[in-house]
Design a protein that fits this description.
By secondary structure, the protein is an alpha+beta fold. The chain has helices spanning 2-15, 52-64, 102-116, 126-138, 148-168, 204-208, 213-216, 224-242, 252-267; strands at 20-28, 32-38, 41-47, 81-83, 86-92, 173-175, 184-187, 190-193, 200-202. InterPro entries: Aminoglycoside_PTrfase (IPR002575), Kinase-like_dom_sf (IPR011009). This is Aminoglycoside phosphotransferase domain-containing protein.
Length: 273
């Protein structure tokens, strides 16, 4: 499957005039991300059906607003390229630059949110993601290795945090959905966000909660109580997905255990504070 996806990417790249004879694997989870050479482009390969068209549309619109996002490769038509039951998309490859400071991270996320308020794109609510996680927790057949005590903890955290978020109210808007460090590139052009397949609507605090804790103090106007609830909710969701029997994230179970310890530490305080 892995080698077949690489072959697909190389064939599609060659068919549109990109010189691609080699591929370096950058990541491999729900889709494969490759650095194609010598054409120096980034290719993403996902099984059909995918949300590639949705992601491209958001990235294109944000790029037109000069938002801090990675650009599509201008040498390729901005659309998913289907072949062999997969869709390939092509993006600009950026050479890594200096590490991103918490201040620069917060500024990039704030500018991203400002641009996202300007694009008329329909996206699912973050609550749909919550419902998906709850279905996993309600079905031990889909999460067979999740201990009962942890299952109860995750259900409790999700219920409590949703209550806090609902009580705090506040505006909701288009969000990245998962603007964590793995989805932010350090480039010579400044920090650039990637991977918009997870875009959803919700409070900005839901996005901020995916960033390192040092970032939140530099994001203007964030509600501390909402942010704490969103951080716990985001942890509960990603932990639940790591116990999905079909999860494909490399080293996912170990990461899930680390995040579970972090969640339990956060839960030690008063949730509604």
């Amino acid at each position: 499957m892995h080698l077949d996806a690489i072959t697909t990417a190389l064939r599609v790249a060659s068919s549109i005039g990109l010189a691609a004879t080699d591929a370096l694997v950058l990541s491999n989870s729900n889709r494969l991300t490759l650095h194609l050479l010598p054409c120096d482009t980034l290719a993403q390969v996902a099984p059909v059906p995918s949300v590639a068209a949705f992601e491209i549309e958001i990235a294109r619109r944000l790029g037109e607003l000069d938002a801090p996002v990675a650009r599509l490769d201008p040498r390729a038509e901005p659309r998913p390229h289907p072949l062999d039951g997969r869709e390939v998309t092509f993006w600009t490859h950026y050479t890594p630059a200096s590490p991103i400071s918490p201040e620069a991270y917060a500024d990039a996320l704030h500018r991203l949110h400002r641009s996202m308020r300007e694009i008329p794109v329909e996206a699912p609510s973050f609550r749909d993601r919550v419902s998906s996680a709850r279905r996993l927790l309600d079905d031990p057949g889909r999460t067979p290795e999740l201990p009962a005590a942890h299952r109860e903890l995750l259900m409790d955290v999700i219920g409590h945090t949703l209550s806090v978020i609902g009580a705090r109210g506040g505006a909701e808007q288009l969000l990245h959905g998962e603007p964590h460090e793995g989805n932010l590139l350090a480039t010579a052009h400044g920090p650039l966000f990637i991977d918009f397949e997870t875009c959803c609507t919700g409070p900005v605090e839901f996005d901020i909660a995916h960033a390192p804790p040092a970032v939140e103090t530099h994001y203007p106007g964030a509600d501390p109580a909402m942010l704490r609830a969103c951080r716990m909710l985001a942890l509960a969701l990603v932990i639940t997905w790591r116990w999905d029997r079909d999860d494909q994230l490399p080293d996912g179970r170990r990461r899930g255990s680390l995040w579970l310890a972090e969640l339990m530490s956060l839960r030690g305080g008063d949730l509604t504070a």
